[in-house]
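Box 4.2: Ligand-aware structure prediction
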Amino acid sequence: MQVSVRVPAKINLALRVGPLRDDGFHELTTVFHGVSLYDEVTVSDEVGSDQPSDQPPDHLSRRFTDEGGDGPLLTIGGPHGSGLAADASNLAIRAIDALAKAAGRTPRARLHIHKGIPVSAGLAGGSADAAGTLLACNQLWGLDWPVARLLPIAQKLGSDVPFALVGGTAVGVGRGEQLDPVPVGRDLHWVVAAADEGLSTPDVYRQLDALRAAREMESADPAVDASLLTALERGDVRTIGGLLANDLQEAALELRPVLADTLRAGNAAGALGGIVSGSGPTCVFLVESAAHARDVAAALVAAGACASAEPVTGPAVPSF
Ligand code: C5P
């Protein structure tokens, strides 16, 4: 038996970062939004089978373990698959282990991840892989647990994994793991402008702490502008564009100053709003329509303002 799940990337329409907590995480309030850029996780119980034939060999990662016979086998392919660790540090391996433990069984499965989401990009691609693994193994192993039962497992894996399980658009509070769905009045069109080299999320948070410390700034309790939620419900794209906000943006720009050029180029190309996505370095631009997205993407590439620019839509949800 084989099960495939496509899980979307996330962007943050607003990311408000509060104080650093004792557990090393920051209190935050965010609006997550899934967009149509996907990783696909395929799991099967044919542990001995060969790699899928559609994957070019240079994009295949090593097997994690096949000595014991009871561990998961992981391969990674796709446009962003090269160079990614297919070992125990991979969040998908941690997800399969966590689900197996909760279900009281061995984590035996063959796992392949087709990476369409750039890595270390502020798009929660690793979280998408973990969520996809939970959703796919839930079915492969015949558990058929409701998502509500997977959420506590997802929470322990990472701050963005619970949202990746459900997708759509949602306010996240706490570490971002307590979710409340947000209605959105129409499909939104975006351009995702990817960078060549990733940024480390902990580094960006640390940079924000340093900036705030240098300014002797108290971090206020993080709150999302209620008018953003109203504009989303109405599908009022101009207002949404003006209200996009990211407290991590300044820190990401300090670590990667060239992103200021990316943001300028997107705005000059007529985007309704543009921000760094999460901890970056990906920048996202809200646009009017699919045609507008193609124009803005072409302008960004022509200006040399990013490594690649892709039109996407949101909200997007995981699908089998
Ligand atoms: O939860 P996740 O593994 O995605 O977090 C990665 C890192 O990002 C954390 O180790 C922490 O440094 C930072 N982080 C944070 N506050 C959050 C979420 C992430 O400081 N709410």
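In the box above, the bound molecule is cytidine-5'-monophosphate. The radius of gyration is 19 Å.
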